[in-house]
Specification:
228 residues, Serine Threonine Protein Phosphatase 5, Tetratricopeptide repeat, TPR repeat, TPR-like_helical_dom_sf, Anaphase-promoting protein, TPR_rpt
């Protein structure tokens, strides 16, 4: 009986192997094509990264030099628009070098330039496109977006931006000032309860910050508005 079971198992194994071989033989062309497609995709990605993206990043970074210099000097118009042939401005870099690190940074610079020029809608357009995971830069850009919303009288959006900036930063250097701005906006919206919560968060969570020493007057005012 045991010998019969062994023979049956061997027969089944042979059938499985045979069927596998038949499947491979029948579909060999499809398998080869699939493998070649995978190889081609990997090769294309490598080629794009090495021969296209890297050179574009380098070229864009070179173009940024003059624009960045004008930005640092506070010459917003020249930083945005450039200085003629060979001296690209931030807007040209954004347009011609999309997807590069330089173009991403140019979005932030352009947003700041427009904010300084009092063009808050344009500032928001560029600031919202900037991407960064840095826990100082990204919250600071979000805070500036909040300032833009305030200037555009979009107070709900402003409060949300300031709160998000504080959450993104989660540190003594940036969060307290963002929370303080949020609290002031909540008061303008008539939401004194939320304003008080924010002020007390500064006092308790960020007690070492300069804002903590100054927020007592805001706490008193928010309490008084609620009849406390």
């Amino acid at each position: 009986m045991a010998e019969k079971n062994i023979k049956n198992q061997e027969k089944n194994a042979e059938e499985i192997v045979s069927k596998s071989e038949q499947f491979v033989e029948k579909n060999i062309n499809k398998i080869i094509i699939a493998v070649l497609i995978v190889i081609a995709v990997v090769a294309s990605i490598f080629a794009y990264m090495h021969f296209v993206k890297k050179p574009r990043n380098e070229k864009a970074s070179e173009k940024m030099y003059v624009a960045e210099d004008k930005f640092i000097m506070g010459n917003d118009s020249m930083a945005l628009n450039g200085m003629g042939i060979g001296n690209a401005g931030l807007l040209e870099i954004i347009d011609k070098y999309k997807g590069t690190d330089a173009a991403n940074l140019a979005e932030a610079y352009a947003g700041i330039c427009y904010f300084d020029m009092g063009k808050y809608a344009e500032a928001l357009e560029h600031l919202s496109k900037f991407k960064s995971k840095e826990n100082i830069v990204s919250p600071s850009i979000m805070r500036l977006m909040g300032d833009c919303y305030v200037q555009l009288d979009k107070l709900e959006d402003a409060a949300n931006a300031f709160m998000k900036a504080a959450q993104l930063a989660s540190n003594e250097a940036v969060s307290p000032s963002c929370l303080l701005k949020a609290g002031h906006v909540y008061e303008k919206l008539g939401n004194h309860k939320k304003a008080l919560e924010v002020y007390e968060e500064i006092k308790i969570k960020y007690y070492m910050s300069p804002e903590s020493a100054q927020v007592e007057a805001d706490i008193i005012r928010a309490k008084a508005a609620q009849g406390k």
